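Dear all,

This email documents one entry for the complex benchmark we are building for the journal club exercise. For each entry we list the sequence lines for every component of the assembly. Then comes the predicted three-dimensional structure of the complex as a token string, followed by one or two observations. Please use this as the template for your own entries, and keep the labels exactly as they appear.
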Amino acid sequence: MIAEIGHFALILAFLLALIQGTVPMIGAARDDPAMMAVAKPAALLQLGLTAAAFLALVHAFTVSDFSVALVASHSHTLKPLIYKITGVWANHEGSMVLWVLILALFGAMIAAFGANLPAALRARVLAVHGLVAAGFFAFILFTSNPFLRLFPAPVEGEGLNPLLQDPGLAFHPPFLYLGYVGFSISFSFAVAALIEGRVDPAWARWVRPWTLLAWCALTIGIALGSWWAYYELGWGGWWFWDPVENASFMPWLAGTALLHSAIVVEKRDALKGWTVLLAILTFGLSLLGTFLVRSGVLTSVHAFATDPDRGVFILGLLILVTGGALVLYAIRAPGLKGGGLFAPVSREGALVLNNLLLTTAASVVLLGTLYPLILDALGGGKVSVGPPFFEATFVPIVVPLLIACVIGSTLAWKRGDLSGVFGRLGIAVFAAAAVTAAAAWRAGIEDFLAAFGLGLAAWLFFGALAEFAAKIGVGRVPPGSVLRRAGNLPRSAWGMTVAHAGLGIVVAGVTASSAWQTERIQSMNPGDAVDVAGYTVTFRGVSETRGPNYRAVTGRFDLERGGRLLAVLRPEKRDYPAERSQTTEAAIHTTWLADIYAVLGERAANGAWAARLYHNPLVPWIWLGAVVMAAGGAVSLTDRRLRVGAPRRARRGRAVEAGAPP
Amino acid sequence: MTAIRLSTAIPAALFVLLAAVFGFYLHQIGTGEKDAAEVPSALIGKPAPEFDLPPIEGMEGGLRTADLRGAVAMVNVFASWCPPCQQEHPFLMRLARSGVPVYGINIKDRPKNARAFLRRLGNPYRRIGADMSGRVSIDWGVYGYPETFVLDREGRIRYRHVGPILAHDLETRILPLLKELGG
């Protein structure tokens, strides 16, 4: 009964989304306030209905109602409650319900907090949003109904893939979807602006908080996914350039470009067409990822169970949403008036460079991801594009981006002065050179590229701090005024410093863990010891343990350095009888400067155990840095100017930036 | 309205091309002409690897390379603990009944479970080798279960199928290939 209510709520939400997508749009065209006013209650009610459907599904999973086919094939009574709940979105159908729930949540937030938007713009934004939502509701109802009943109902469910029974993965999809779906708001704003034919600084200020919110969530989502891959898959790596990883990375790159170009629209009333295009492309790449993962056109460890009919439907959706918006862009963009030329050496010039490099990086990832598919479709045979391609193409694009990042954020708007910049960044230049030299000294000159990478990380980190110090007048004014200046600085400036410093931390982690990983794979008998990057790891044997829905063999490794016991590592091999599958649980000891990572392998015929031991220098910094970056985004989000609904579109003839701090 | 400028139409044009390729590929997958899950095997066209496996404990037979020569044959890697193996089992039974020699490699299975599996669902295999350590499967380049290979008369591997054989695969790929090889 509850499942049927959920299904019914989804149908109502679909119909309501169609109304939300059409009536306010017509109302905005006819300047009819009554029709435009439909948008707000429709968006709020849509959230209520979608939440009802989602809760109905959560209920079916928590009470293990195996008469619902989806529950029977993805759950099990013995599963811990938390994984019964997260099991809702650990499958195709349920994850689409989570997707539309987040979509409806964002729509309702615009409706609730968008009181300061001009009525016509708000009506159009919500209408575009409603149309996108209608497409996804139709997709669920026609190809992926989560509430299908199964008769007769089985006594027990088939269980959830044990790899997915993990806290890191449980919360990876919600963050990822918050990011993907959050970009749909920027998309709706872009399309509404194209329909209106008007993009101005106020528009950019309205779009920015939504883009920032989505960007923060996507940053966390990608970091969680990579962290999960690191500790759960037991390969010792954290990024594999897998098509599905790339599918989340491309919208992140485009979204990062969008964040920066929106600043130029806001401050300089320029780059309008480009920013609108980026908003369309960012969401378009999110949709493309959905298509790649769920249509069966490519294989990956992450891909959902696939079905060509679904593929056709999502392709249709992709064509309508992205294709439609791009055609609209082709027609309307020439009419967007730009704000005049600007000097190459200026903040806005640097932001253009940032955008060029970020979009080139996104294109390279796109090309590498789609090339095998395109080649196979055109009869060119099977190829796979792996990490060597991405490392050879992505890194050379990112290096100038990272160098320019610090310089650009120090340049003044309109007319920058390079010599002044280097005066302020002297300390960062010194830090980068010192770190590069020290790393090359320790690791040897043949590792010069890795040493350079660490120097780049120092450049970013100390560059961000030096720029901030210069801004608040450290060394130029008395300490009291420095503090006052820091307090008066807009939150967005704080946010930029934090996020760029976080990027430096990520770069350090990526460089060190890629260049200086130590790996030992060998078969060990109890009592055997092995040296891993200066640590001694001694195998002490295995014991059998039992979890709620699995049996495990737990290895015991003593980790010592200089004769002192630092930790006992207990990697597990788990056997889940209901799902008939095994997982490996790596044991990780972190010093924050490095991880010692142990995985228990198979038992050989002679009784010895295969063990894989890794020393991963600075690897925790990757996720630490990602969290710092997202925190920077969050700080920026609290900026007074960006508070949702705070900015007002100025009356014609009045300077738009009148009320904003410099 | 302003006239469309070439530069602003480029994104839409590129997108149309991309969407056309996607549509074309989905169509090819739908008709079975292409298969995204197909991973080319380095062993295609090469002789089957040398191996000699004992039978499943409590059963007759065992399987070695020499058994696979002389006729078009199929080698299926299976286990009782693998749900997709049960899913494809009826199709293997159908092939066996129509006279195709199907050989089995039972991987990392408990003999008791493997025997019960075959008693319950039927035994389509002429001979079965028990690969308890998984060593032989590595030589065959197996990376998922089930996996199926089609061999020609000379014992060379001609086709590899990853995952369960379903009706669609049987009709569009395996039966035509067996016919072509003259099985």
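Observations: Chain B has two domains: 1-34, 52-181. The longest strand of chain B covers residues 73-78.
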